[in-house]
Design goal:
4-stranded mixed β-sheet
Length: 225
């Protein structure tokens, strides 16, 4: 008998934020029925999707379990915290308060300070209101990818809590966020210099099937190479 997934995930193949949720679901062993929202055609601004998320952003997660609220969950970091609380094994946050704060800090350097600068709505504004052509947009991407990842590199290289992963030797939310930035950076064919620890952690993540399955190129709608 086929079991209907508990969750519905509104997603798009290349987005960093959706990647984060896919990895967390994979690590927790939780399935979700995905609904593709095409950002390139503006489907996120459709009346139907704005009822799900008035910000017109993905991902959005709906819990269809009996007795649960059907209110959509939005914002990838909130969704990760929800999954951590709902499915605590394997843990994606350390057991100690200091460790949890460090992991959340690293995660938000990437998901809060870096990723928002590359969203389609930012590109649209810069191209229509600030006169950015393709070259200016690429320079913008390179600058902010470099700024964000080199700042994370400085922390990974200097803080004793760094291990095989961002914090210790098991993946956490910080690693999910780091991998999400590298994954979308590769989609844009951009490289950042002088980030050996960032790339080392990314390589460790990619050895885990939960990360590999979430890769943009493996999603429905991704361009065929």
């Amino acid at each position: 008998m086929t079991t209907t997934p508990r969750f519905e995930l509104f997603s798009y193949w290349r987005t960093s934020a959706t990647y984060r949720v896919r990895v967390a679901l994979n690590l927790k062993g939780v399935s979700a029925e995905e609904h593709n929202i095409n950002l390139d055609t503006g489907e996120q601004r459709s009346a139907d999707f704005l009822k799900i998320n008035p910000m017109g952003a993905i991902p959005a997660l709906i819990d269809r379990a009996p007795g649960q609220s059907s209110t959509p969950l939005t914002q990838s970091m909130a969704i990760l915290e929800f999954l951590e609380e709902t499915y605590p094994v394997p843990a994606l946050l350390p057991a100690d308060a200091h460790g949890r704060a460090r992991v959340r800090g690293l995660a938000n350097m990437l998901a809060g300070d870096t990723h928002p600068l590359f969203t389609p709505r930012v590109r649209k504004y810069l191209s229509t209101q600030a006169g950015f052509d393709d070259a200016a947009w690429r320079a913008w991407q390179i600058h902010w990818f470099t700024t964000g990842l080199q700042a994370v590199e400085q922390r990974l290289s200097s803080e004793t809590e760094t291990g095989r992963f961002c914090h210790g030797d098991t993946p956490t939310i910080a690693d999910i966020c780091l991998a999400s930035i590298i994954a979308v950076m590769r989609v844009f064919k951009i490289e950042v210099a002088a980030i050996p620890n960032v790339l080392r952690v990314m390589a460790a993540c990619e050895q885990i099937e939960a990360f590999a399955k979430a890769a943009p190129a493996r999603q429905v709608g991704a361009p065929q190479s």
